[in-house]
Every structure is written in C-alpha cells, then in structure tokens.
From TrEMBL:
<dbReference type="InterPro" id="IPR027417">
    <property type="entry name" value="P-loop_NTPase"/>
</dbReference>
<keyword id="KW-0547">Nucleotide-binding</keyword>
<dbReference type="InterPro" id="IPR039430">
    <property type="entry name" value="Thymidylate_kin-like_dom"/>
</dbReference>
<protein>
    <recommendedName>
        <fullName>dTMP kinase</fullName>
        <ecNumber>2.7.4.9</ecNumber>
    </recommendedName>
</protein>
<comment type="similarity">
    <text>Belongs to the thymidylate kinase family.</text>
</comment>
<keyword id="KW-0545">Nucleotide biosynthesis</keyword>
<dbReference type="InterPro" id="IPR014505">
    <property type="entry name" value="UMP-CMP_kinase_2"/>
</dbReference>
<keyword id="KW-0067">ATP-binding</keyword>
<keyword id="KW-0808">Transferase</keyword>
<dbReference type="Pfam" id="PF02223">
    <property type="entry name" value="Thymidylate_kin"/>
</dbReference>
<dbReference type="InterPro" id="IPR018094">
    <property type="entry name" value="Thymidylate_kinase"/>
</dbReference>
<feature type="domain" description="Thymidylate kinase-like">
    <location>
        <begin position="237"/>
        <end position="417"/>
    </location>
</feature>
<keyword id="KW-0418">Kinase</keyword>
C-alpha cells in the first residue's frame, strides 16, 4: 500500500489543518479517524472544493523546481477571474511524511455554490498547461452516514491525451501534525539560502529564459569570495516599513561620519522589476545575491570609515520565512533553528539594530506618507498574522541577533538610543 499523501491547509485566521488522502483501509470499515472538523467544513458539503497543486521536484533538480514555481505564479491570475474568482482560495501544501517526493504548492478552491462552471473552468485551465509540469486537480466530496461525514477525493486524469476523467475516489482522513512545518526542510533550497552558491544556482537555472539572471550573475562573479574587513564597524538598521529606517540611518551616518549603504545596492536597480515579477524562489535568490554584492561594497567602505547599512540579510530572511511557512506564528521554525543563523560566507556586521513601533502607529505613518505600497507592505497591512511572523523571525535571528529599539519617541530620542547601542557594542569607534 502506497504511503498516504498528506496536506497542510491554511485556515482562515492563520491556523493549519493536516489531512491525508489515499490512506490504508479506504473503501471499507477502517479505524482511520476523520479529518479535523475545521478541514472537513472546507472540504465537504455543502459546496464543493478542489485541490489545485503544481508537482513537486527533488531539491537537486533546480530547473524543475523553477518551472514548477513559474507555473504556479502563471496560474494565479486565472484563478481570480470568472467562476473561479468567486471561489474562496486557501493555501495548500502537499507533502509525503519524511519529506520524499518534493513539496507540492497550490491552493484549495472552495465553491460554495458547487456549480458546474467552476469544474469546467478548472479543466479548461489544465488544458491550457501544455508543457510539463502540469498541475494536478483533485475534487472533494462527502457523504453522511451513521458515523457522520466521510470525505473522499477523486483525482482528475487525462485519458488518452484527449479527455479528462475522474479516477476512483480515495478516502480523506486525519493526519498528524509534523514536528516541523512541511515547508521548513525546503527553506534552504527555496527561500533562505545558506550560502552564495545556493542562491547562485537558482539564477543559473533561470538564464535560458531570463536575461536579467545572466547580468546579475556577472556582477556576483566579480565580487571576491574572501572580503577583507576594514578597521571600522559595520552597523545594520532593520525594521518593517514606516518604522523610521531611512530617517535613522541618515542621522546615524551623519553622527558617526559613516558611509551610508543599502541592500540591495543601487547597481541592481535595472533588474529589480524583472525579478519582482518572478516567483518567490527566484526573487529571493536575487535579493540574497544582492546581499553578497552589497557586502563587497561594505567591505571596501569599512576600510575608510564606519558603515551604516539600510537593511541586510535579516530582512531578506525574515520576510522569506514568514511567506513560505503558512499558518500562524506557532508554525514557524522554533528559536535556535539553523534557518535563523547568519550565512557563514557573508560579511558579518558588528551590530544589527531593529526599529520597532506599534502596529497602530505604523499604519498612521504609512497613511501620512501617502506613498505607493509594496506587495509585502500590502500583506503586512492586510494580515496581522503575517506581520507577527515577520516580527517573530527578526526576534529569533542570531549570530548576530537584533537589538530592538523603540522608534516611537522623537527622532532625536531614537537617534540617541541607537548611538548608545553603537558606543556600547562597537568599541573600535574613535
């Protein structure tokens, strides 16, 4: 009997429910428990639900992983149109216990009306995917019996290359929650790259279809792997948007007579838009390599003066972890997990300052600026769960960790608090 396929469904409000499909004993009397009632309410009647997933790929096959990520990104706009646009959409991950077979990413689409138009639109969407990998589609159903609701999933299969037909139903049952969120083992390959070569390999896989990838790799390859540090300290200022990073970094650089740098560096600006339109895996690799290019500039500048950096590795990693790990804060990797460790081949700062303000004050500042918001800022604004995950990731970073500073008081008070930290932690300052 094949090992059951397991799924992690992100529930409204940030919870997670785990269930399995194809468990032993389906089709007869069996002891397998019914799934979490929260999942059953989304999978069973009334209404009809569908699982749309892109195939997983082994970690070593980067080209296949990039193709799968691009396929999912291409499908998302179509899922917001027509009858599919009326469906509730929830993040869904497919995985095998123990991690074999690669992580499948996709969505659960819940059609409250259970109309035939939704099914037709999904099958037409599958027909539009002419090249491998093709997404998989499973349709859920249920029936009430003496023991309550029993759930099933019927996969849709292409028979003879011409017609979509439903396969035999498979029982949906409860699955234990894994010790770690199923996306965590995949983070070093898809989001939080542990060294320069891991991020570089992703962009290398993109060069056949993304000219910007080759241009960025040329810049990266000009950066020496061993960066001699100068005698002056390097101070990084981190924080969510509208916490005052721009104001503090400028004032701090002026007070210290320091060079002010940013990550990603200005030299990557011509290609940022191209990478922001790519799936998260590719975009994260680009920003990760931006840190290594910035590190080359930081090393050179630290030979002449102190260096203040507006964001660096911590923000790249915190947003990536919070995005990839579905669910709420409790589903993040625990403190001391290796994913929170600074990459060993990346120039290490002497101090990382994390500016913090209350969610209410941050929203007021954003409204006061009247600036166009980034996609991540939209997510922070719309989801308190996402914001809490980003903040928790910042708090768990270590070696070096973040030193939090309340950025609510006046600019001068915040600057003095940061200068106090700098003097305590950077004895090499003149």
């Amino acid at each position: 009997m094949a090992q059951p396929r397991c799924f992690a469904l992100e529930l409204p409000g940030g919870g997670l429910a785990h269930f399995a499909v194809g468990a032993a004993g389906s089709g007869g009397a069996d002891p397998d428990p019914d799934p979490d009632p929260r999942a059953a309410a989304l999978l069973g009647p009334p209404g009809r639900s569908y699982a749309l997933l892109v195939p997983g790929a082994p970690g070593a096959d980067l080209a296949a992983r990039v193709r799968a990520a691009r396929l999912l990104r291409r499908l998302l706009p179509a899922l917001r149109r027509g009858p599919l646009g009326r469906c509730e959409r929830l993040r869904l991950l497919g995985y095998r216990p123990g991690g074999g077979g690669g992580l499948q990413r996709g969505l659960l689409l819940r059609d409250p009306g259970a109309g035939p138009a939704t099914r037709r639109a999904l099958l037409a969407l599958l027909d539009s995917c002419l090249e491998a990998p093709r997404p998989s589609l499973g349709e859920f159903g249920g029936e009430f019996g003496g023991a309550g609701l029993r759930l099933w999933q019927r996969p849709w299969e292409l028979r003879g290359g011409r017609e979509w037909r439903q396969a035999e139903p498979e029982r949906v049952v409860a699955a234990p929650e894994p010790a770690l969120h199923p996306a965590v083992p995949d983070l070093p390959r898809a989001a939080v790259f542990p060294h320069r070569e891991a991020a570089r390999a992703v962009l290398e896989a993109c060069t056949p279809f993304l000219p910007a990838a080759g241009a960025v790799l040329e810049l990266v390859d000009r950066c020496p792997r061993q960066l001699p540090r100068g005698p002056f300290p390097v101070i990084v200022v981190e924080g969510l948007d509208a916490t005052g990073k721009t104001t503090v970094t400028r004032a701090l650089a002026d007070a210290l007579g320091a060079a002010l740098l940013r990550s990603p560096p200005a030299g990557l600006s011509p290609w940022r838009q191209a990478f922001d339109e790519e799936p998260d895996m590719v975009r994260r690799a680009f920003y990760s390599l931006g840190n290594y290019i910035a590190a080359s500039e930081i090393a050179a500048a630290s030979a002449r003066a102190p260096v203040v950096v507006d964001r660096f590795w911590h923000s790249t990693a915190a947003y990536a972890i919070a995005t990839e790990v579905s669910g709420a804060v409790q589903h993040l990797p625990p403190a001391r997990h290796p994913i929170y460790q600074w990459p060993k081949d990346l120039l290490r700062p002497d101090l990382v300052v994390l500016l913090t303000v209350s969610p209410e004050e941050r929203r007021e500042r954003i409204r006061g600026r009247g600036l166009e918001r980034t996609a991540e800022e939209e997510e922070l604004e719309a989801s308190s769960t996402f914001r809490q995950k980003v903040e928790a990731c910042y708090e768990r970073m270590e070696d070096p960790g973040c030193h939090a500073v309340d950025a609510s008081p006046s600019r001068e008070q915040v600057l003095q608090a940061v200068l106090g930290l700098v003097r305590d932690r950077c004895p090499q300052l003149p």
